[in-house]
């Protein structure tokens, strides 16, 4: 029912670019919160994107590897303005946070670390849990409905995410297939077989690529392209993959530098994956930052733009719709589970628990309260409270 895409868009490409720049500059809370903001602003408030197009974009972003929020932004740019729209929307969304993490990388390299960052992260991490919890609640209410099978898929993924503390890619696909087979049993399965075969080849391909002897920038580009191409899920889901390569395999950073890089990603707006720019800067300066970011985001751009026309063309078929609904239920379940995983790492004492609860209550009570206001207040809270608790502990 892509009614809006059939008519002239109710906005200009310039307006969409300005929106993506603003979201990239002020959009805190990680991928879950960011996809929630896009729904609130572009679907509910402005009516630029139809509910159907948004759901298709979210499903495609979940099906493909790479950062969720960036892929959804690219897809929403594609809806009315095709490849040009996808390209400029993606760049506008990623650029502000990239420039911020490069500036922080420069400060970190020149001034010997960021001692104030632990205090800021202490507060921001707790508030982020509250922000993500509210986004997960809204997505659940919107996406799952009253269909029992979708609830079963949703709850299964939520539990698996909490237990394994990771997003298991094949379970998303399994959720889609289960709903598809149940609601619109297919007469052919050949494409699914090809896709499954491709997925099984990914580890062996990545193993061959990592064995090549390349100059430093080439190694950085190749490693981060693998991160963008082979890691499903988004935001914090990419962190274990990055740790394995950056710290354990290549020894580009030590443990503390890597933890600081993750903290930078959490206290800056835009996609959490933008921490690759910070890591790249520490390893090889501005060139390293650019190569790392390009390597990570180029695969997700291609994985969004190349299948988009076919996804739109066949998106109305009952089989595809059932598959999309199943994947969406799985994705929202994983997102809900990740709230508990992140909470376990960020809510470490009574003040952080209280701050997370206060964030949820404030967002519940004041619907128009902007998340950046909460993040700034939480950062100040951290700067004041963390030294007091730290001093008391000593």
UniProtKB/TrEMBL annotation:
Domain of life: Bacteria
Protein localization: Cell membrane
A family per Pfam: Chromate_transp
Molecular function as annotated in GO: chromate transmembrane transporter activity
Coiled coil region boundaries: none
Segments crossing the lipid bilayer: 16-37, 84-107, 119-137, 149-182, 224-246, 258-280, 286-310, 322-342, 348-366, 373-393
Protein name: Chromate transporter
Organism classification: Bacteria, Pseudomonadati, Pseudomonadota, Betaproteobacteria, Burkholderiales
């Amino acid at each position: 029912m892509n009614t809006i895409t059939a008519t002239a868009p109710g906005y200009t490409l310039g307006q969409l670019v300005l929106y993506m720049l603003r979201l990239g500059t002020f959009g805190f809370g990680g991928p879950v919160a960011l996809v929630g903001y896009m729904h609130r602003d572009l679907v509910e408030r402005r009516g630029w994107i139809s509910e159907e197009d948004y759901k298709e974009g979210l499903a495609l972003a979940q099906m493909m590897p790479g950062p969720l929020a960036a892929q959804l932004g690219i897809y929403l740019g594609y809806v009315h303005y095709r490849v040009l729209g996808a390209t400029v929307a993606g760049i506008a969304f990623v650029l502000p946070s990239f420039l911020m993490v490069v500036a922080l990388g420069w400060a970190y390299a020149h001034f010997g670390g960021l001692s104030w960052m632990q205090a800021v992260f202490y507060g921001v991490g707790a508030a982020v849990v509250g922000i993500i919890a509210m986004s997960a609640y809204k997505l659940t209410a919107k996406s799952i409905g009253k269909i029992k099978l979708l609830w079963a898929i949703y709850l299964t993924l939520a539990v698996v995410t909490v237990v394994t503390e990771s997003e298991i890619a094949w379970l998303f696909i399994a959720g889609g297939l289960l709903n598809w087979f149940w609601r619109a049993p297919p007469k052919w399965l050949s494409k699914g077989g090809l896709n499954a075969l491709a997925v099984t080849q990914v580890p062996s391909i990545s193993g061959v690529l990592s064995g090549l002897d390349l100059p430093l920038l080439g190694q950085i580009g190749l490693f981060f392209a693998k991160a963008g191409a082979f890691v499903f899920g988004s935001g914090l889901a990419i962190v274990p993959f990055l740790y394995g390569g950056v710290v354990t395999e290549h020894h580009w950073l030590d443990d503390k530098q890597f933890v600081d890089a993750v903290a930078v990603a959490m206290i800056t707006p835009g996609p959490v994956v933008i921490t690759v720019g910070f890591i790249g800067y520490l390893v090889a300066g501005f060139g390293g930052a650019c190569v790392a970011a390009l390597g990570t985001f180029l695969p997700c751009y291609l994985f969004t733009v190349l299948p988009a026309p076919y996804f739109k063309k066949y998106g109305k078929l009952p089989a595809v719709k059932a598959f999309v609904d199943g994947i969406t239920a799985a994705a929202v379940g994983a997102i809900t589970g990740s709230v508990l995983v992140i909470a376990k790492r960020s809510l470490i004492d009574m003040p952080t628990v209280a701050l997370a609860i206060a964030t949820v209550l404030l967002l519940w009570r004041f619907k128009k309260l902007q998340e950046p206001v909460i993040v700034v207040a939480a950062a100040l809270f951290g700067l004041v409270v963390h030294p007091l608790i730290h001093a008391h502990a000593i």
